[in-house]
Amino acid sequence: MISYFLRRLLGSIPLLLGILTLIFFIINIAPGDPTARYFNPNISPEVIAQMRTNLGLDQPIHIRYFKWLGSFAQGDFGYSFGQLRPISEILPTVLWNTLQLMIVAVVMIFILGMLIGIVQAVRQYSVVDNVLTFFALFFYSMPSFWLALMLILIFSLKASQWGWPIQFPASQMTSVGYEFFSTGERITDRFMHMILPALALGVGGAAGIARYMRGSMLEVIHQDYIRTARAKGLSERIVIFKHALRNALIPIVTLLGLYLPILLSGSVLVETIFAWPGMGRLIVDAIFQRDYPLVMATSFIAAGLVVVGNLVADVLYAVVDPRIRTE
Amino acid sequence: MDIRRALVVAVATGMLAACGGGDVRGTARGDLPEEDRYGGTAVIGSISDIPDINPLTSTETLAAEMQQYVLFLPVIHYDENLQPVPALARSWEVNADTTQLTLHLRDDVFWHDGVKTTAYDLAYAYEKARDPATAFPNTAFWTHYGKGTAVDSFTFVVEMQPHAEFMDPWRTFPAVPRHILGDTPSAQLRQHPFSTRAPVGNGPFRFVNRVDGQSWTFEANPDFPEELGGRPYLDRLVYRSIPESSTLLTELLTGRIDFFTALNNDQAALVESNPNTRLINYMDRSFVVIGWNQRRAPFDDIRVRRALTHGINRQGIVDAVLYGYGVLANSTVPPFFWQFDDEAGSDMTYDPEKALALFAEAGYTRGPDGMLRNAQGQPFRFTLNTNQGNQVRADIATIVQADLRRIGVDMQIQILEWGTLLDRINTRARDFDAVLIGWRTEFRIDDSDLFLCDKIDEPFQWIGHCDPGLDALINELPLITSREASKPKWVEYQRRVAAEQPYTFVYFQERLHGVQERLRNVHSDARGDWVGIDRWYVNDGPRSTGGAGE
After folding, report:
1. ipTM (interface predicted TM)
2. Residue range B535-540: average pLDDT?
3. Is A84 within 8 Å of B238 when comparing Cβ atoms?
4. Which CATH class is domain B284-509?
5. What's the CATH number for B31-258+518-538?
6. Interstrand relation of B519-520 and B537-538 (parallel, antiparallel or unpaired)
7. pLDDT value of residue A241
8. Domains (range + CATH), chain A
9. Residue of A nearest to B449 (CA)
């Protein structure tokens, strides 16, 4: 198992390197310039030229590539042109902010999605099944940015205008004056700020998982061994949750790995709308500002997440399916 | 919610003074007496993040606002009439032939770490700002300025050529703490923690903290000189960056933001109709133009450019896109400047007939399909480029397209990502026909980058306009120190620009802000969004009723 794990990790190194090299040349060749944001009538062309020199952009692209590769290999991500700080200082906070959001979203996606899917499968073709199917398809087909705006409209703006007892903040991770709050207030505050973005990020995914779960569960429920279990006189609860669910989970678990990159790309819009200072927003800002070092660093993290996500899926696959483990 | 509670706690100390009687003019929404104004937190929101606050290196407009009114004390301020008034400089004088400016600085201004601000700090800032390696964004400030020296701790003398509006640069230029930045190489100033994480200013507010991509927090500086207003009313000032403007609007309407800097025009009505918010609007120096690339026919023909302007219903654009918050522009001079001439371009009305007549003169006639064609039978067809992510510009482009279609011009719209657009219009190839873009006039107008013939290969000479007569004016005007003497020439300049129509000047737009009713004494104007921020105060229900303490 461990050697398998290591082999997979080693195998991903050339893959990552290839991705990063490709991105390096694409972003550097793309029209635009990191100094373009300094564009302003008061800034003379000489100043722009000086800035380019200060940023090291006056060197040819292949030199810059090898320079970047050299420092990257030593674990040095370099300096962000846009934020004017070492990238190693920026990334941890931003990554953690996004992970918080993604973890909440993933937990919500799987728990909610699986529960709905199970209910639908067990009560196939009932009214409950049809209603849930309708809503699942509705949320599944809804773009996350639209859902985000609707959530803000209803649970923040309208909730305030209509005087609802619970109103959610529409932006950022904490309230003003957070540093003066007690621990209890802080937890509540963080939680309140987290709910809307996590919902916007996760609801579509949960609806998708519900569909998968329903299909997978239905397939299993009609197997002979389920009929045998029922015939043995086992309670329905044990039949469903112990015998059926475990087998139905196998295809679902592989989705976990696939959801990480989907969530990361979803977070681009959601984080912008909710002013959530995470990876998604950072990547977009970096690309628009042509902040080359930051683009490279965030791409590396994103690519790394995808690789890790797939690895996690494979491991989980082995956990739920003993046949894999023995091979 | 929790913010409210925090605010009530924060102002509780200020309330004791209020109970001691005094002038109770204040109503729930009216003005509070002086002694009741202290305390509270105000939250400013904007869509932009401010990554760099160093006055020597920052480039964002709002960073400049923060430097001028919040964290630093510039050498001078402007009053409502745009006249220089003392700030860090207690007074100043020029010698008889206007070649030397002497600034006498205050001796009671301290950096927030306790060190006194001196002329040596100013001399240091001046020297760094003139060093090309710093890449100080406003180097145009110093075009006519020379060597500067600190004569003693509070006197700074600087050489100059006589030139117009020579005090203007000092409006935005503060000293910087030499004892903190002293040894930093100029090229490294931008990366110094002072720029991003630990700025030390000498203004009415001092830095508390910054959360990346989220907020800047400041608190009142109790040691700010009494003569300049003393301690600001607010205890705390928080700047929050929220990139999506509809989210920001929600936060304003629900009371989580007190001041929405630079509202979109389509949001103004909502802010006005909301009982807890008000709209602040005033004429600004920003304008929108369509640049005609004169390196390409037929835009090199003045008749064609004039015809295009006549063919565009600019007032319609102001009404539809700006919701009326703007006026027609005819040159780079904003209507509230003393240089302004309202005759210039007054003949450039929306007049499709006149447009067609001019096109006919230039050799374009309408075919049976209604489209304009030249003698060779080629249709009048071109592409207008503008940047992505700006709905106002996309809307303008659409209106222009429809207006021009009516007179037989086939205009295509191509919206490009900002970096890509700049690449097209700034680089030598100038691969575009027409571009819709915005610009901002400085108080000291200098259009040399836009129009001068010898800058034709420089980035901002997008349109390739060259008129020696205009050049003469552009070169001469900045050197005339007397307003009376230069006014006729300014009039000539504006009329010449309007006649040549190098650009179709679409409009000057008003700047709009959304403000909570609880935030009082806000008087933003063309000087700046946050001008007078040290006199802003919050008027919360419980405080204004006098005895409602908790």
Report:
1. 0.85
2. 90
3. no
4. alpha beta
5. 3.40.190.10
6. antiparallel
7. 87
8. 2-73 (no CATH), 91-320 (1.10.3720.10)
9. A41
